[in-house]
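Sequence in, structure out. First:
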Amino acid sequence: MAAKVKIFAGRTSKYLGEKIAQAYGTELGKMSVISFADGEFQPSFDENIRGTDVFLIQSTFTPADNLMELLMMIDAARRASARTIVAVIPYFGFARQDRKDKPRVSIASKLVANLLMAAGVNRIITLDLHADQIQGFFDVPVDHLYASSVFIPYIKTLHLDNLTFASPDTGGTRRAGSYAKFFHTDFVICYKHRAKPNEIAKMALLGDVKGKNVILLDDIVDTGGTLCKAAKVLMENGADSVRAMITHPLLSSNALENIENSTLEELIVTDTIPSQKESPKIKIITTADLFAEVINRLKKKESISSLFKF
């Protein structure tokens, strides 16, 4: 007899966990977290999970308590004799630290992978990793999903003429190229030079956007500095309109102010991170159906890659 699936969510991802469980056709599992006076906490499963396939939903954005909570949930599930433990990490934090870009620094994303495996995870499901090579940091299977499966249907509803895609930096060239290939259109690149983190000294445009409706693509929007600067450069070079599609809306510091004062017509994001800042320019598209379908396919031992013909 096949093992039963149970879905649980950490505190900061409960809003998404409830939607994923509903889309899968079940209720979110019962768990609680005891908090102590000194800030220490203790997650606990409030129902039997022995012999079940457990899916733990938790994005690991700051603070680091979110990562620690996920590690403790994995450890608790292992000690409670779950059959398999799958960490569903919609936003994989510390992914921007995937290499040594200067001497004497940590490769934090590798450290996080080590911690997850040491805790006892059997599989990882995540969405739009900042760097594809992070999959190789794990010695367990990683299902790397793509936000294109929720963004592309929305793009089609816009019915934009003279559509062109853009990357706000050279690192996103492959993403922009993939969208352009799917829609049989062009793409351009914004080349940036940083004076220091979150501060751009110079940005130039590679390509022609005159008379085009442009969609900027990226995996993370943090302070929004790069995004807003890129939108300004595109409009200055003759674009008719500029929208942005960003998977993970960190929206740190004065990001909301930057976006509202920018030339961006619209910012489309997913719900991998809870929305704490509202703006008429920001549209949120849910990933719940996508994650629920992946869980369903894992349960039925069906192909996941076929979801991403893109």
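Second:
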Amino acid sequence: MSGGKKWARAASLSAALMFIPSAAWALQLAPYKNALFAYPAELSSRDDGDYRVFDYREYRDINQRDAIPERRVGDRYVSLRVRRAQQDMALDTPSGTLHAVAVGAQKGASVITVYLHGQGGSRKQGVDDFTFGGNFNRIKNLMAGNGGLYLSPDFSDFGDKGAGEVAAIIEHYLEGSPDAALFIACGSMGGHICWKLAENGKIAPKLSGLLLLGSMWDEDFFKSPAFKRKVPVFFAQGSYDKVFPVERQEAFFEEIRKRAPGYPTRFARFETGTHGTPIRMTDWRQVLNWMLSLRK
């Protein structure tokens, strides 16, 4: 066999092996605009780096990042090609016709990330390419570029009905991607549904991680199947959050660690950040890759 043929065969084998599932090779999301979305300087940390404080500054992280502050991020932060993989869906489910925006692989997805909006939001918030510093555009590109699926659903309320609707949407897509890692990220009031899904007997066994972004705590989590499975939990909070005080969320983070030593949980505090800061500043790739590395 010639040297060229040997090289081609080796390259082909190497490419094929990248897609062979292996317990030894945990899925990791490939880089996407890492430098632009990297965390600002770390001011302090503790708990072996599980709790970190970052130097958030409004002038730098909003005014210098956005072309129109809080309305349109600078063009270099986004790539709109991902819209080709985006669909507004109307799903017939046992809970009725439900609406969600889906971005990426609707079947055979390697990973599914769901974003649940807060009070006054809708499915459109989670796919807005230009608000929140372009961070929703980034997660869309991370999912679509890694064979994954990103979902931003509508739901009726933040109680049992809304949680049931979100669960029905998730179950619909899990049917087409039964082996996908499942992450649920909740902004603000959407956290109520995050915690309810942690208790859901069908969703909790599939969960690979929860992300609470400027959100709340729930003592019932300690009774949930997700807690018993040690599903990773990530908290991000602005220190000036007047809706959900950072001190209360930090206390809940510490309670998790106290009740279950070694529990996989992390906390990112953005110093001087406000209620919406975590949605803007959370490094999706870093958080999800940490959770993926723990997946069994």
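Remark: The longest helix spans residues 160-176.
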